[in-house]
Amino acid sequence: MQHGAGGKTHTMADVAKAAGVSKSTVSRAFTQPERLGAETVDRIVKIAQQLGYVPNHTARALSTGRHGNLALIVSDVANPFFPPLIRAAQLQADRSDFCVFLGNSDEDPRQEDKLIDRFVTQVEGLLLVASRLSAERIVFHAKRRPMALINRDVAGIPRVLIDSTTGVRQAIDHLADLGHKHIIYVSGPSSSWANRQRRNALKSAARLHDMAVDVVSPHVPSYDSGRAVVPEILASKATAAVAFDDLTAQGIMTGMAERGISIPDQFSVVGCDDVLGAATYPSLTTVSNRSDEAGRAGVRLLLDMLNGHMAGDTRLVLDTHLVIRNTTASPARPGFHSRQAGTAIG
Amino acid sequence: MQHGAGGKTHTMADVAKAAGVSKSTVSRAFTQPERLGAETVDRIVKIAQQLGYVPNHTARALSTGRHGNLALIVSDVANPFFPPLIRAAQLQADRSDFCVFLGNSDEDPRQEDKLIDRFVTQVEGLLLVASRLSAERIVFHAKRRPMALINRDVAGIPRVLIDSTTGVRQAIDHLADLGHKHIIYVSGPSSSWANRQRRNALKSAARLHDMAVDVVSPHVPSYDSGRAVVPEILASKATAAVAFDDLTAQGIMTGMAERGISIPDQFSVVGCDDVLGAATYPSLTTVSNRSDEAGRAGVRLLLDMLNGHMAGDTRLVLDTHLVIRNTTASPARPGFHSRQAGTAIG
DNA sequence: CTGTTAGCGCTTTCAC
DNA sequence: GTGAAAGCGCTAACAG
Question: Which residues form the HTH lacI-type domain (chains A, B) (predicted)?
Answer without folding.
Answer: 11-64
